[in-house]
TrEMBL record:
TPR repeats lie at residues 55-88, 89-122, 123-156, 157-190, 191-224, 225-258. Residues 1-22 form the signal peptide. GO terms for cellular component: cell outer membrane. This is Tetratricopeptide repeat protein. GO terms for biological process: receptor-mediated virion attachment to host cell.
Length: 269
């Protein structure tokens, strides 16, 4: 197995840390899939007007507002849903996402805890609370929540991808690869697990599989700065400074504050 030069190990470690601690904006507004069906807000409003005591209708419209980034209206709808049905555990978990998006982690934690008190087998709440813990750097708590969801036979790919990020952060790359692979099997069109698995392959010196996965991630979404940096790392390792520079430059264009991109550019200029 080829050894990775020291500067690549340092760079890859920095990327792994960034991947593990960064907040995925999509995760903040991604509402429980079972309760947050897409729909036209106007038509959902009409449903509510026809039946103003329908807690589910408020919950679904709150989900739609959350996806649209209108957190104040989403919060109002979830509050109404919970007033109509105080045991609506899905609405608690959905409202927790809104609180997370607003930066009120204490309120989000309370809502996740309330959802799990009502339904201790609700995998979505474990995953959501785990994401909140992971973003706060409480990796052991996050790992335990992802594990609980997995023990409940969740089919949500986030549980495996995000547990894989913690394995990756701990340097347990074989376990991370298994989790990323499971996440991919559950959602083959999601780009981030490919990128994450590629990084673990790279850490283990498996350049070919790493390159394949990272390119797959970019094929699915060309706007992932981290994936461009990872591609640049491999080109740099191969001595192709031109392609490495192009990859780092693309990453820097997408995210000018992404330090691994700037570091890569400084090395290959």
């Amino acid at each position: 197995m080829n050894r990775i030069p020291a500067f690549l190990i340092v760079a890859a470690s920095a990327i792994a840390l960034s991947a593990c601690q960064a907040t995925d904006p999509a995760s903040v507004i991604s509402i429980d899939r079972a309760q947050g069906a897409e729909g036209n807000i106007a038509s959902l409003t009409q449903v509510i007007n026809n039946n103003p005591n329908d807690a589910e209708a408020y919950n679904v419209r709150g989900s739609a507002y959350g996806r649209a980034g209108d957190f104040s209206k989403a919060l109002k709808d979830f509050n109404t849903a919970l007033k109509l049905n105080p045991n609506f555990y899905q609405a608690y978990a959905n409202r927790a996402l809104i609180y997370r998006g607003m930066g009120d982690l204490a309120a989000a934690s309370n809502d996740y805890n309330k959802a799990l008190q009502i339904n201790p087998r609700y995998d979505v709440a474990y995953i959501g609370r785990g994401n909140m813990y992971r973003e706060a750097g409480q990796l052991n708590n996050a790992f335990n929540d992802y594990q609980r969801a997995i023990d409940l036979d969740t089919t949500d790919p986030r549980a495996y991808n995000n547990r894989g990020l913690i394995y990756q952060k701990r340097g347990q790359h074989n376990q991370a690869i298994e989790d990323f692979s499971k996440s991919i099997s559950l959602s083959p069109s999601a780009p981030l697990p490919y990128n994450n698995r590629g990084l673990s392959y790279l850490a283990l010196g498996d350049e070919e599989n790493a390159f394949t996965d990272i390119n797959k991630a970019l094929q699915l979404d060309k706007n992932i700065a981290e994936a461009w940096v990872n591609q640049g790392l491999i080109y740099e390792r191969r001595g192709d400074k031109t392609k490495a520079r192009n990859a780092y430059a693309r990453a820097a264009q997408l995210d000018p504050k992404y330090q691994p991109a700037q570091d890569g550019l400084s090395r290959v200029r």
